[in-house]
Specification:
Number of strands: 5
Order of helices and strands: HHEEEEEHH
Radius of gyration: 17 Å
Number of helices: 4
Distance between the termini: 28 Å
Length: 154
């Protein structure tokens, strides 16, 4: 799975069953795997801080998903995906959401929408600078440790 910026690798089914999970539920909104551990802890009765997976339609879903793989960086939000290669080239794609996981969402052709691309590029720049989505920056000591390991620039 070296190239994980593409929807075939990003949109995979996850099945959960148990107390606190509605039977027969299907979540088609974008969710993030990073929220899975907090979700499982919350289902087990532990107090958690931060977002969890939306287990019913009343809970908010993640507005954006950020990531990196050996080909570059990506931001997926609001029906679009911005792909940025490690050499700085980037392209904006429209994402066609599928109603179910039986047919994965397909990445559309590159589109020219300068305002959307600029807004998404600014968010991706911020994520690349601190290694976390805006509003979820790590604590200063964690950021320093990540810098020392070479995971974060700044």
């Amino acid at each position: 799975h070296g190239l994980q910026r593409f929807d075939e690798a990003l949109r995979v089914p996850l099945f959960l069953r148990g107390r606190g999970i509605a039977a027969g539920g299907l979540e088609t909104r974008q969710v993030r795997l990073v929220d899975l551990s907090r979700t499982l802890l919350a289902l087990a009765g532990a107090a958690v801080q931060g977002p969890t997976l939306p287990l019913d339609g009343s809970q908010p879903a993640a507005a954006a998903a950020f990531g990196v793989d050996k080909g570059g960086f990506y931001l997926r939000a609001a029906g679009h995906k911005l792909l940025r290669e490690h050499d700085g080239r980037q392209s904006l794609h429209r994402v066609h959401e599928a109603a179910t996981f039986s047919g994965a969402a397909r990445e559309g052709e590159a589109v020219e929408e300068p305002a959307i691309e600029a807004a998404m590029a600014a968010l991706l720049d911020r994520w690349q600078a601190v290694g976390a989505p805006p509003g979820q920056e790590p604590a200063p000591e964690t950021l320093e440790a990540l810098k020392a390991l070479g995971y974060v620039e700044r």
